[in-house]
Amino acid sequence: MFVLSFLLRRLLQGSLIILLVTFIIFTLLRVVPGDPARLIVGGMAPDEVVAMKAKELGLDRPIPVQFVSYLGTLATGDLGTSFVRPKSGASLGGAAFDDQTREERAKVLDLILATLPMTLQLAMVALVIALLVAVPLGTAGGLYPGRWPDKLALALGSLCVSTPNFWLGIVLTLFLSVKLKFLPAIGYRGFSYTILPAIVLAVEIVPFILRTLTVSVAQVMREEFIQLAPIRGLSRSRTIFSHALGNSAIPLINLLGVQLGMLLGGVLVIEFIFDYPGLGLLTINAVLQRDFPLIQGIAIFISVMFVAINILVDLIAMTIDPRLEY
């Protein structure tokens, strides 16, 4: 009963968040400078042609009317149709096509689903790399506060958080790809093309995991039930692995849920640097082309995934520790 109540409450909250994101994105796209109709027909086209194209795209109506119409379309599960991208080769991007009919243009949901697996692959590889680095070091830092593992974790976290991702991406490309020819860098022609951008993304995640795990483990190790473990005959290793790490995992799981959601929406720069054909590169191209339906669809899709991930993370945390209440 509690789980059902929790799910209903969180789904209602998530729906309100998604609706708010939809309204903000929809409104901002229509008030910022830049006319997609003129971009499609060309800068030298007569105003009459631009007006016809705007009417065809539904941009001539008042913004509130457009928004209500868009919500009606969303209610059917349709994220709309791209302004400029054709069905053929849609996932790779496209140019402006002045003579396209609506039937010839790609569906926004199809474009998103075509690139989403690439971004998920990149995000998961980055997360695995970050965990392999941060979990052992963060655990050691929490077990030995104030000593060299803790200082090393703090130093590594400070270094990672102060390193710009675009600079690191360029440096690693020059060193690992151009000089050593160890890893490919640009585009995608196999899994090996995921590793280099994943390393750059992992560097962004490592500081947060390190700090969260170090503080969490150190706090749990000070708890009374840990201090009494030797009296109960438990060895230090069993105390750490059976009790300390389990209780320290909840803050880490919550953090990972947030970080994974942020990764799905925060790979724009990395995918652009490495020309990685994922959701981030699709978003940048959509912004450059003023493709309103595609930008809106991506924002809504990421919002839905972010809400779903956080609900799942809360359920996992409650399963680990039933004492938690949300």
Structure description:
This protein has 326 residues and is an all-alpha fold. The protein is built from 13 helices and two strands; from the N terminus they run ααααββααααααααα. Strands 1-2 form a two-stranded antiparallel ribbon. Helix 6 crosses helix 8, helix 8 packs across helix 10 and helix 12 runs antiparallel to helix 13. The radius of gyration is 24 Å and the shape is globular.
Based on Cα principal axes, name the global outline. Answer: globular
Radius of gyration from CA coordinates: 24 Å
Structural class given helices, strands, pairing? mainly alpha
- Share in helix: over 70%
Biggest sheet overview: 2 strands, antiparallel
Strand order of the largest sheet: 1-2
Question: Total number of helical segments?
Answer: 13
Number of strands: 2
Unreliable residue runs:
89-99
Order of helices and strands: HHHHEEHHHHHHHHH
Mean pLDDT: 81
Distance, first to last CA: 14 Å
Report the β-strand fraction as a percent range: under 5%
In short:
This protein has 326 residues and is an all-alpha fold. It is built from 13 helices and 2 strands, in the order H-H-H-H-E-E-H-H-H-H-H-H-H-H-H.
From the structure above, extract its key features.
mainly alpha, two-stranded antiparallel ribbon
